[in-house]
Amino acid sequence: MTLMKNANVEKLGFLIHDTARLMRKRFQEKSSEYGLSAAQWRLLFRLFKEEGVPQARLAELLEIEPISVSRLIDRMAEGGWVERRQGTTDRRVRMVYATAKARSLFGDVKQVATVVYDEALAGMSEHEQLELVRLLKQMADNLGAPVGECPVSGRSGQEGWTK
Protein backbone atom coordinates (compact mmCIF):
# COMPACT_ATOMS: atom_id res chain seq x y z
CA MET A 1 0.00 0.00 0.00
CA THR A 2 1.56 3.27 -1.10
CA LEU A 3 0.80 6.27 1.05
CA MET A 4 1.35 9.96 0.63
CA LYS A 5 1.11 10.07 -3.19
CA ASN A 6 -1.03 13.20 -2.99
CA ALA A 7 0.94 16.33 -2.13
CA ASN A 8 -1.96 17.57 0.00
CA VAL A 9 -1.72 14.45 2.22
CA GLU A 10 1.91 15.32 2.92
CA LYS A 11 0.62 18.50 4.60
CA LEU A 12 -1.61 16.50 6.96
CA GLY A 13 0.41 17.08 10.14
CA PHE A 14 0.72 20.80 9.48
CA LEU A 15 -2.99 21.12 8.72
CA ILE A 16 -4.03 19.28 11.87
CA HIS A 17 -1.62 21.33 14.00
CA ASP A 18 -2.65 24.65 12.43
CA THR A 19 -6.35 23.84 12.71
CA ALA A 20 -6.00 22.94 16.39
CA ARG A 21 -3.95 26.10 17.04
CA LEU A 22 -6.47 28.32 15.24
CA MET A 23 -9.38 26.73 17.11
CA ARG A 24 -7.62 27.32 20.45
CA LYS A 25 -6.89 30.92 19.43
CA ARG A 26 -10.50 31.55 18.37
CA PHE A 27 -11.81 29.97 21.57
CA GLN A 28 -9.44 32.17 23.62
CA GLU A 29 -10.65 35.29 21.79
CA LYS A 30 -14.31 34.44 22.37
CA SER A 31 -13.83 33.44 26.01
CA SER A 32 -11.43 36.22 27.04
CA GLU A 33 -14.11 37.89 29.19
CA TYR A 34 -13.57 35.19 31.83
CA GLY A 35 -9.91 36.11 32.31
CA LEU A 36 -8.51 32.60 31.94
CA SER A 37 -5.53 31.63 29.81
CA ALA A 38 -5.67 28.87 27.20
CA ALA A 39 -3.76 26.56 29.57
CA GLN A 40 -6.25 27.29 32.36
CA TRP A 41 -9.18 26.52 30.04
CA ARG A 42 -7.56 23.24 29.02
CA LEU A 43 -7.17 22.30 32.67
CA LEU A 44 -10.80 23.18 33.42
CA PHE A 45 -12.02 21.13 30.46
CA ARG A 46 -10.17 18.14 31.87
CA LEU A 47 -11.80 18.69 35.26
CA PHE A 48 -15.24 19.05 33.67
CA LYS A 49 -14.70 15.67 31.99
CA GLU A 50 -13.11 13.93 34.95
CA GLU A 51 -13.75 15.36 38.41
CA GLY A 52 -11.07 14.90 41.04
CA VAL A 53 -7.92 14.33 39.03
CA PRO A 54 -4.52 13.91 40.70
CA GLN A 55 -2.12 16.75 39.90
CA ALA A 56 0.38 14.32 38.38
CA ARG A 57 -2.29 12.93 36.04
CA LEU A 58 -3.24 16.48 34.96
CA ALA A 59 0.39 17.07 34.00
CA GLU A 60 0.28 13.94 31.82
CA LEU A 61 -3.07 14.83 30.24
CA LEU A 62 -2.03 18.41 29.51
CA GLU A 63 1.46 17.32 28.42
CA ILE A 64 3.22 19.85 30.63
CA GLU A 65 5.70 19.51 33.48
CA PRO A 66 4.31 18.75 36.96
CA ILE A 67 5.79 21.98 38.38
CA SER A 68 4.03 23.98 35.66
CA VAL A 69 0.72 22.29 36.51
CA SER A 70 1.29 23.05 40.18
CA ARG A 71 1.82 26.76 39.44
CA LEU A 72 -1.19 26.80 37.11
CA ILE A 73 -3.35 25.25 39.81
CA ASP A 74 -1.99 27.72 42.38
CA ARG A 75 -3.13 30.67 40.24
CA MET A 76 -6.49 29.07 39.50
CA ALA A 77 -7.07 28.25 43.18
CA GLU A 78 -6.33 31.87 44.08
CA GLY A 79 -8.98 32.93 41.54
CA GLY A 80 -11.51 30.49 42.98
CA TRP A 81 -11.63 28.26 39.87
CA VAL A 82 -10.24 25.03 41.37
CA GLU A 83 -9.52 23.49 44.73
CA ARG A 84 -7.09 20.85 45.93
CA ARG A 85 -8.08 18.02 48.23
CA GLN A 86 -6.14 15.16 49.73
CA GLY A 87 -6.62 11.81 48.06
CA THR A 88 -8.89 9.41 49.93
CA THR A 89 -6.58 6.42 49.56
CA ASP A 90 -3.24 8.24 49.67
CA ARG A 91 -2.91 11.49 51.59
CA ARG A 92 0.21 12.44 49.64
CA VAL A 93 -1.80 12.64 46.42
CA ARG A 94 -3.39 16.02 45.73
CA MET A 95 -6.67 15.76 43.85
CA VAL A 96 -7.91 18.77 41.86
CA TYR A 97 -11.58 19.69 41.57
CA ALA A 98 -13.44 22.42 39.70
CA THR A 99 -15.23 24.77 42.08
CA ALA A 100 -18.86 25.80 41.92
CA LYS A 101 -17.67 29.04 40.28
CA ALA A 102 -16.03 27.07 37.45
CA ARG A 103 -18.96 24.64 37.09
CA SER A 104 -21.40 27.55 36.84
CA LEU A 105 -19.62 28.63 33.63
CA PHE A 106 -19.79 25.22 31.99
CA GLY A 107 -22.89 26.04 29.91
CA ASP A 108 -21.40 29.36 28.76
CA VAL A 109 -18.10 27.72 27.86
CA LYS A 110 -19.86 24.93 26.00
CA GLN A 111 -21.73 27.57 23.99
CA VAL A 112 -18.47 29.32 23.09
CA ALA A 113 -17.02 25.98 21.96
CA THR A 114 -20.14 25.31 19.85
CA VAL A 115 -19.74 28.67 18.10
CA VAL A 116 -16.05 27.96 17.40
CA TYR A 117 -16.89 24.49 16.05
CA ASP A 118 -19.65 25.95 13.86
CA GLU A 119 -17.19 28.50 12.47
CA ALA A 120 -14.56 25.81 11.83
CA LEU A 121 -17.06 23.50 10.10
CA ALA A 122 -18.74 26.21 8.01
CA GLY A 123 -19.27 25.19 4.40
CA MET A 124 -19.36 21.45 5.19
CA SER A 125 -22.51 19.39 4.94
CA GLU A 126 -23.67 17.46 7.99
CA HIS A 127 -22.45 14.27 6.33
CA GLU A 128 -18.99 15.80 5.73
CA GLN A 129 -18.81 16.98 9.35
CA LEU A 130 -19.67 13.51 10.67
CA GLU A 131 -17.18 11.91 8.28
CA LEU A 132 -14.44 14.32 9.35
CA VAL A 133 -14.99 13.46 13.02
CA ARG A 134 -15.10 9.75 12.20
CA LEU A 135 -11.83 9.93 10.26
CA LEU A 136 -10.06 11.98 12.93
CA LYS A 137 -11.19 9.46 15.55
CA GLN A 138 -9.82 6.64 13.38
CA MET A 139 -6.49 8.46 13.16
CA ALA A 140 -6.43 8.94 16.93
CA ASP A 141 -7.29 5.27 17.48
CA ASN A 142 -4.54 4.21 15.05
CA LEU A 143 -1.92 6.37 16.74
CA GLY A 144 -3.12 5.50 20.24
CA ALA A 145 -2.70 1.77 19.60
CA PRO A 146 0.52 0.05 20.61
CA VAL A 147 3.07 0.18 17.80
CA GLY A 148 2.60 -3.42 16.67
CA GLU A 149 -1.19 -3.11 16.54
CA CYS A 150 -1.52 -0.13 14.18
CA PRO A 151 -2.63 -1.33 10.71
CA VAL A 152 0.59 -0.12 9.01
CA SER A 153 3.13 -0.28 11.85
CA GLY A 154 4.21 -3.78 10.87
CA ARG A 155 6.06 -2.31 7.88
CA SER A 156 9.74 -1.61 8.12
CA GLY A 157 11.21 1.87 7.75
CA GLN A 158 9.63 4.13 5.14
CA GLU A 159 8.37 1.24 3.02
CA GLY A 160 5.28 2.37 1.14
CA TRP A 161 5.91 6.06 1.72
CA THR A 162 6.84 8.25 -1.22
CA LYS A 163 9.12 11.20 -0.90
TrEMBL record:
<dbReference type="Pfam" id="PF01047">
    <property type="entry name" value="MarR"/>
</dbReference>
<feature type="domain" description="HTH marR-type">
    <location>
        <begin position="9"/>
        <end position="141"/>
    </location>
</feature>
<keyword id="KW-0805">Transcription regulation</keyword>
<dbReference type="InterPro" id="IPR036388">
    <property type="entry name" value="WH-like_DNA-bd_sf"/>
</dbReference>
<dbReference type="InterPro" id="IPR036390">
    <property type="entry name" value="WH_DNA-bd_sf"/>
</dbReference>
<dbReference type="GO" id="GO:0003700">
    <property type="term" value="F:DNA-binding transcription factor activity"/>
</dbReference>
<dbReference type="InterPro" id="IPR023187">
    <property type="entry name" value="Tscrpt_reg_MarR-type_CS"/>
</dbReference>
<dbReference type="InterPro" id="IPR000835">
    <property type="entry name" value="HTH_MarR-typ"/>
</dbReference>
<keyword id="KW-0804">Transcription</keyword>
<protein>
    <submittedName>
        <fullName>Transcriptional regulator</fullName>
    </submittedName>
</protein>
<dbReference type="GO" id="GO:0003677">
    <property type="term" value="F:DNA binding"/>
</dbReference>
<keyword id="KW-0238">DNA-binding</keyword>
